[in-house]
Each structure stands twice: as structure tokens, then as C-alpha cells.
Amino acid sequence: MATNPDFGSAIKRFHFLDNELRLNRESRNRRDRIRIENQKNTQQLPYFKPLSKMKFEEKDPVRQFNPHRRQDHDSTPMSSEQVRKCYNCQSFGHLSKDCAKSKVENSRNHQINHISDEISNKEDHIMKTNLMKII
Length: 135
Prior knowledge:
The chain is mainly alpha-helical. 60% of the residues lie in helices and 0% in strands. The chain has helices at 3-44, 80-83, 100-134.
């Protein structure tokens, strides 16, 4: 009688394992069918060819882009003094670090900016005091 429950549990375990194997086999077959179908679809499309089957053409090497290369070869070359442009006074022939006008203008601009800041601060203070008086 003691072997009876062991036999029943062994049968249940056997059915369980048999069911697991069947499900595993079905899912494997389903995955294989999907993979085969996908391979058929990709073989029909020309842009899914493997790289080993593709033929590549060699072309001329690509020329490097040079932004400093002049496009118009017929015109006269520019001298280095003509190319230099001052960003302070907008004149040609020198750079902004060598500009004589920049030192004078920068000091004037600094003084003007400083004075205008002081005036705006005083105006703000006057407006605040007038508002305080009204309230």
C-alpha cells in the first residue's frame, strides 16, 4: 500500500513532464516557422542581402574639403594686409589688438557706461522713494 501513493505521484510527475516537453516542442516549432518565414521575406527584398553577396565598386578617393581654398582661381591673390580687418574700427590693414582707435574708444565707452549706470541707479532710487511717499 505504501507504493500506491508513490506510484500515483510518479504518474502525475510523468504527465507534468510530458506536458512540459510537448509545450516546449510546440514553441520551438513556432519559433522555427517564424524564423523561416522571416528569412523567406528577407530573401525577396533586395536590400536585405548579406554583405558577403553584395558587390562594391571602388570609386575615386574623396577629396577633403578645405574651407580656405579659394574658389575663383583667375582673380589676383590677396595680400596679407588686405585680408586683415580690424573688428573695432572695421578698417582693413591691421588687427583689433593693433588698433589705435580701440584704446581711446574703449576708455570713452567704459566712462559712458559707468556714468549711465550711475544715472539709472539714481533714477531707480528716486522712483522708489516717490512710491514710498505715495503709499
